[in-house]
Amino acid sequence: MLLDPEFLIVQTLNGLQLSALLFLLSIGLSVVFGLINFINLAHGTLFMLGAYFALSAARAFDSFWLVLLVAPVGVAVVGGLLYLVLLRHMQRADPMKQVLVTFGLIFVGLESVMIVWGPLPHTIDVPALLAGSSSVLGQVYPTYRLFIIALGLAVFLLLYLGLERTRLGAIVRAGVDNRTMVAALGIDIGLVFFLVFCLGCGLAGLAGVVAAPVFSIFPGMDMSVLILALIVVVLGGPGSLKGAGLGSLIIGIADTYGQVLVPELARVTIYALMALILIFKPAGLVPVRSGH
Amino acid sequence: MRERDPIQLPVAGLLAVIAVAAWFGAGYFGQELLAEIAILAIFAMSLDLLVGVAGMVSLGHAGFLALGAYATAGATVFWGWPPAAALAFSVAVAGACALGVGLFAVRLGGVFFIMITLAIGQMFYAYFFKARAFGGDNGMSGTPRFDLSPLGLETGDPAVFSALMLVIAGAVYVALLLLVRSPFGMMLTAIHQNENRLASLGCPVRRYKLAAFGLGGAIAGLAGALMAQHTGFVSPDLAFWTLSGEALIIVILGGSGSLVGAAGGAAVFVMLRDHLSDGSFWEGLRLSGDIATHWQLVMGLFFIAVVLLARDGLYGRLSWLVDRVRSAWRGRGGGA
Amino acid sequence: MSEVVFRAEGLRKSFGSLRVTDEVSLRLPAGRRHGLIGPNGAGKTTLFDLITGEVEADAGEVFLGGRSLNRAPPDARARAGLARSFQRNNLFPGLTVHENLALACALKHGIGHVFWRRLERFTALWQEAEENAGRLGLADHLGQRVSTLAYGTQRQLEIGLALVQEPLLLLLDEPTAGMSPEETSGILELLSSLPESLTLLIIEHDMDVIFGLAERITVLDYGRVLLEGTPGEVRGSDEVRRRYLGAAH
Amino acid sequence: MTRKTSTLAAALTVLAFSFPAYAADPIKIGVLLPSSGVFAGLGGDQTLALEMGFDDFGREVAGRPIELIPADTESKPNSGLAQFKKLVFKDEVDIVVGIISSAVAGAVRDAAHNAKVPLIISNAGNNPLTGEQCSPWILRTSFSNSQIVREMGPWMAAKGYNNVFLMAFDYAAGHQMMDAFREGFVAAGGNIAGEEFPPLGETKDFGPYLAKVKAAKPDAAFVFFAGGPAIKFVKEWAAFGLKGEVTLAGAGWLNSALYVKKQGMDAEGALGILNYVPSIDTPENAAFQENFRAAHGRDGSEFGVAAYDSARLIVEALKATGGATDDKAALVAAMREVHFEGPRGPFRIDPMTNNVVQNIYIFEVQPQGDSVAAIVQDVIPDVQDPPKGCTL
Q1: CATH code of the domain containing C207
Q2: Minimal CA–CA distance to D57: which of D310, D295, D350, D283?
Q3: Can you give the residue range of the structural domain that contains A142?
Q4: What is the nearest CA distance from A101 to chain D, expressed in angstroms?
Q5: Considering the entire predicted model, what is its pTM?
Q6: Domain range holding C77?
Q7: Which domain, by its residues, includes B69?
Q8: Where are the alpha helices (DSSP H) in chain C?
Q9: For an interface test with A, which of D205, D209, D254, D260 has the most A Cβ atoms less than 10 Å from its Cβ?
Q10: Residues A2-18: pLDDT tens digits?
């Protein structure tokens, strides 16, 4: 079956699609982790929130494109509020407390979603333009999934340009590399963190919006992606854009093929991969920090 | 030394008195709760040894709990072992696995240690979820309790079983307290405070951490074996990482590093969960009983509050209070 | 000249493109009081880190008592007879002075792994810690938590922890940094009371201290050995004066 | 407290104790359903229907009011067990009803058996619960996994589907469903084109598996998915171009009344087999659906019906005992005698296994108005499980 070209093409596209989603989801987590060594377990919750915001926005507006814009902004605002109210004060706390505060947020998020939108699953429609299927190398493939791949790629390129070409990008790069130095240059590093944090939350929200038509929207969709996103971050190297891209690609492809080819081990192998990377390359495949 | 932690034994004594009083006063259900608290306390204390004493924050500790529970379930149901032998087997299996895992995990620190333990705990979860022999996701029932009929005791009776659990929890506490106050325990405390300096004084830090990790895993396995006996049932949920998270909350709530605090935290946690999810509790507060449906929201907020406000936990607050009262007393004595 | 206790051969270390230690070699006979000086960033503390193994060397070898320590991690080197104090106080802040010292004693006697007996039950060890506290002038602070001590007192303990180990070679990284003149003279008194057989390598910015104490001095600059000689030779060297002494004073 | 009121209170206390305790004593019924965790949605649905059932069939028997005490299982076995014990030992309920998840049912099973309190399972379908692990104290009003699916194999083989692909999540229920289908289908001469068991809950993507279905080129696929994943599966089935190429058939939860309208036209043409569909044409069902729609604005589901029938079972059994609940054995005996025409057709408890005996419906999803609905194609009456290892 591995040599069957039809299977290979469709499966590879599936892998890329999952990679694109994982990338959107994990890049925010990765940069925040890299910048302030902060693990946000509630990142999956923001993903879920993105999907639910999309649900409400889709009821309010008719345009999917508007939803695609509004819902992530909504999530970014929520993220920003969380930062200002709660997380900002946690930066100096030890990692355990950071992890546990965001752990508490998972429960709060889950129940809030159930109170507002109810416990039953919801769906939103794919926009007419992207509904249906396209032909890729002779294979029928859902157009919307191609759109997800393209979106992931576009966001990667935009972030890459942003990091390389803008002043904010340069500060972020420097901040991941050596935080005290940036602070010593008299840059308001707190503001930079805030902006980056909001952007990361917005991207998680964007992943939620994009995922909503494919996955259906239900309480608990946060848990199903959180651990995968953490694995991507660790694998690629915290704080690295290229690392997040590479990690997403590896996990997306490995998970897609692994599930089908060795279903007995599918999930165990991915956790084991994360453990191995942590042991032998704790800084990830694309390490950013230059030693001290 | 004695000055450093003056309220440890008084608080432990107080808890013991409360436990005994509760045992006498409790009905059937109260004793079930008491047994649950005792087992959770053992689990929380084993985590406290890692987190509070040695400073190793594990988010995969539930994996060893599950391992112990499954080992007991397997040994009793498949091989027909007596529960006591199965218990020893559980402790050995969980301890050995913890040592194996620790070999790699103790090389990492801080956030990375949290992440690797999370990954490994989830590995156990994924494994048990698929383990057809153990009923997969449906879990497996049929684990028997200790057979104390030669002593004329029926462990099926919650009164007997909860008393037994309290005794075991007490024994684990005493053992851990002795350990913490031994030179080895002192080393673990010092590792928590300043690992590098301890190494430069000649301490093979990783080996000590490994020993602590293995020991913590073994005791978690003990808790798991008791839990399997208590519920008669094992399921993959025991290994899920949120249980490790809840145990961490318990440790912080009680006061990390204080052992007896972890036990007290377990009691508070179980009672709180029991009340928050009970409609009549909310009605008692003159609120709508429907809030009970969303009790996890309240629990989540409580978690956040604990982490933000608890600082050194219930035990720490108590300690501080006693200090204040004492110095006020001394101040008055000095003036007179 | 007595037997060489400590030998470092061609130690090298780079961080990125910056070479912080460059072909440094050092030989110390037993009982030598040896000074290490140089401008900020000369690589003095890094050299200590390389000797104790806290930083892994790119090249070079370290011998103590004829044994190569190259493969050994810091704790094994400590057990082999290396002890150091740190430039910045590096203690166990939540423990008492007594406990800090008892820890070091317990490790020296190899009973750190004992878990079945309470630490206080090791009366001899407990007493040894107390005696050491007396020797270090810390007797009054025995039961106090380190975090509540004044800076100078902490500094005394910092050096004391290393002394308790009874090492073959003692590395002191700026022992008097940040101390008042009275405190400094206390430390000097302590150092001069050390047994003759102890070998001492000491980094110090206070030139009066170093010239009073050291028999020989190595001057580091940009990670290289600029000069090694007696205090008189070092003081007399034009190059040292130009590069370092002049700038510092 | 003044002297006067305290005397009054004392008098009242004396009065309270001098009456026979049971006269106005409420009949306590523990409702063991999740309000959190993965099955919170189904728990909510059953809670609504249960309440409606007691409204319809009576909230009072022989002068004793019926009191419902909810307890959240969190869809977790250990919490479910703890809550069961709380209901039985603390609240001292007379009957426990509920349980969505088979894992929770497995955890509660021994405790219920030992406590000798009637437990009515209103959803969890794990086969052994009314098979080798059956208990005289545990009745099931919903279904067993194989009871639902068993007849589908022969039916599809008879309709000319010879080559069928199987797919379900890799968990106990998934395997039980597929085993039951495979057994009947292969015995009827069918061929299994392939089978896939994606990991439960972690499959964010059915694409890889659909690619395999495509490559196997079967006549039909028989699958079991429920809830959010069911919606997703049906949508992706269409998006990958399988709709119209390969017939999609499933254990009927694939197109549950709870969400078939959200699947919309993508579900059209799907076949299903289930113990209930809203389109059953009987006066009992019409009345139930009318009430449910009026109260909640949507169709009642198979989950709701099982809870609704559970309420009726309880009330009728209580009527038979004259409201007496002290003799639990008599109460269970009364329950086993109850039979009635419910929304899903004739309802009774199988004395051999304590599992429900009920009609099983084969339906097709067809367009209806601007949406879709499950339309009954065939009815297999009075489906009963063989007493596999159960000796009651």
Answers
A1: 3.40.50.300
A2: D310
A3: 5-280
A4: 20
A5: 0.88
A6: 1-81+167-249
A7: 8-331
A8: 44-52, 74-80, 97-108, 123-135, 151-164, 181-192, 207-213, 231-236, 238-240, 246-248
A9: D205
A10: 567 777 888 888 889 98
